[in-house]
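Ticket #4471: structure export looks truncated?
Reporter: QA, pipeline team
Priority: medium

Steps to reproduce: submit the single chain below to the structure queue and open the exported record.
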Amino acid sequence: MSDSGSAMNGKVYIHEYIDIIGHNRGRYMYHMTANWSPTAQEERHQLCYGVWGVVGSTGRWPQVVNLWEEDGFDGLARSFGHELGHRDLQDPKLAAWWAAAAELRAGGVDRLLVPAPWMPTIEQACADGIRGDVYAHEQIRVPRGSSARYLDFVRRESIPVMHEFGWKLAGAWETALIDDSECFLLWAVPTWQEWADREKARRSHKGLVELEAQNLASTERMTRILLVEAALSPMRLGRQPSRTDRTEAWDG
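Actual output as written to the record:
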C-alpha cells in the first residue's frame, strides 16, 4: 500500500513468466532493463515495474518474471497499436533487440493485470523506498467472480499480519480477460531471515494461523515463489533504468 498520498492507481500491468535458455538469465535481465526499458519509456510510455530472477528451489528454473506498467487500457491500446501495426506484427526499429532477446529466451506466458486501486504505482513504490533482498510472489486462484473481493480481504486482513514479519505489499492485482478468478500479490521482504521467520511461524503464530484459515476458506489454490531483483530493476535503483546504466554498447 502506498504512503505517497491518496492517488488511486489507474494503471494496467503486463506480467510475464519468461523461460531462459541455458546460463543466460543475467544477460536477459540486463537486456530487458538497460536496452529495452529506456526505449519503451520514450516510445510507449511503458514503465518497468520490475525484473526478477526466480529462486529455482521455489519454482520453475531458469525463469525470469517481468512486470510492466502501462497508462491504463488506453495506454496499453496505444502500445499494442505501436507494436503490432506492421505487416510482420513487429516494430521494425526493434528488430535487432528482438533478435538479441530470442537468443536468450525460449518463450513465456503473459497476462494483463488490473491493480487494486490502493496499490502503489512504480513511481510511488520507489518514492516510498519499497525494497526487498527477496520478494515473495503469490499467484492465487479464487472462485469465479471473487478476485476484487479477495484483494479487499488482503488489504484488511493480510497486510497487518504480514507487517509483523517485516513484509511489505509491493503489488496486488487481479488478472484481466478471464472470469475474475485469479490474483497476484508481490511482497517485498527486507531480509532473507525475515522471509524465513514468516515461513517458520506458519503454524504457530496466531495471526498467521487465522489468516491461513481464512485463505483456505476463500481461495482454491495459492502458490508462492521467491524472486530476486535484477541489478537495474527500479525498486533496487529507486528509479527507472536509463541509457546511462548501460555497460555495453547498444544502438537503441
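Status: closed, not a bug. The export was complete when the record was re-opened. Leaving a note from the reviewer for reference: The radius of gyration is 18 Å.
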